[in-house]
Amino acid sequence: MPEGPEIRRAADKIAKAVAHKPLSSVFFAFEHLKAYESLFQEQQIIAIEPYGKALLTQFDGGLSVYSHNQLYGVWMVRKAFNYPETRRQLRMAFHTEKKSALLYSASEIEVLAPEEVAAHPFLSKLGPDVVNPNTTEAEVLDQVCSDRFRRRRFAGLLLDQHFLCGLGNYLRSEIAFVARIYPNKRPMDCSDEQLEALGKAAIAISRQSCETAGITNDPALAAELKERGWRRRDYRHWVFSRAGQSCHVCGTEIKKVTLAGRRAYFCPCCQPE
Ligand SMILES: [Zn+2]
After folding, report:
1. Which of 2, 43, 200, 269 would bridge with 59, disulfide CB 3.0–4.6 Å?
2. Could you tell me the distance, in angstroms and rounded to a whole number, from the CA of residue 253 to the centre of ligand 1?
3. Helix (H) or strand (E) segment spanning residue 118
4. Residues in the chain with pLDDT < 50?
5. How far is the CA of 175 from the centre of ligand 1 (A)?
6. What does the pLDDT read at residue 72?
7. Active-site residue numbers?
8. What is the pLDDT of residues 90-126, one digit of tens each?
């Protein structure tokens, strides 16, 4: 499953292909959206913003298209009208003179007015988006310290899109490690310094992953390990998927546990239970 940084990169790729350009054609598979095809063809896309695993495609006329990929939806950017060979069903397409952005298999597509975006049942419940450049460490810290979340374990919180949006399983382990917090602790068990470190790490690690296509380890260290012949899966992260290998910071063996139903990794020395 893609996490926030991967979805942000996908959104940026789609925007680069079809935003701020005249649209030569717009296609919707669903009958109730057909009426919007000719309307959007006259407009331009001004932004494509990820919200958790959903994307909001904003048009200059004020309307937005909400699409949620669920498990099977996939976006493809191709040369204009160059459809891939696939058994998937095309659900939505934006074409410009040079490029096509094609959405296959997604089942949830809606056209929303601005007030409907604000009241949307999925969008309105999401926590601050860690890969959105407008989200601040203070907003993250407010969530961490709120009555709603401070009694819950980070293991569950860091996967909950209502807490922070854009996180997922590898980021959960990596953020907890960088903040030096054992992932099964609760905010109420932590010092102010640890909570501040978590707020910083949630934003910094997610954005770094976005910029580096998935490197959450220290970039200089990752480059050095790569130079020394390490495999990507071994130099990419601090702890995630590194059970049995030694911690990049202290040399202790990284442990794997199951928390909130998913695999998690931690250093017993840097993140004491
Ligand atoms: Zn360690």
Report:
1. 43
2. 8
3. helix 114-118
4. none
5. 14
6. 79
7. 2-3, 53, 262
8. 999 999 999 999 999 988 999 999 999 989 999 999 9
Cα–Cα distance, 81 to 271 (Å, whole number): 52
Provide the strand spans (E) within 105-234.
108-112
The neighbouring-strand residues paired with 51 are 54
Per the document, the length of the chain is 273
pLDDT digits 0-9 by tens, 184-213 = 999 999 999 999 999 999 999 999 999 999
Whose tokens are 């790729």? That residue is 13
Tokens of 178: 């960088």
pLDDT for the residue 1: 61
Distance (Å, whole) CA 50 – CA 131 = 9
Nearest residue to 130 (alpha-carbon basis) of 154, 153, 150, 158: 158
CA 236 to ligand 1 centroid distance, Å: 16
The residues, any chain, with a CB within 8 Å of residue 115's CB and separated by 6 or more, are none
From the list 154, 122, 113, the residue with the least C-alpha distance to 273 is 154
Q: Which pair of structure tokens corresponds to residue 138?
A: 């203070």
Predicted model pTM? 0.84
Q: Measured between alpha carbons, how far is 231 from 225 in angstroms, rounded to an integer?
A: 8
The domains located in the chain, with CATH, are 4-125 (3.20.190.10), 137-266 (1.10.8.50)
State residue 93's pLDDT score: 98
Residue 75 has φ and ψ, to the nearest 5°, of -95, 145
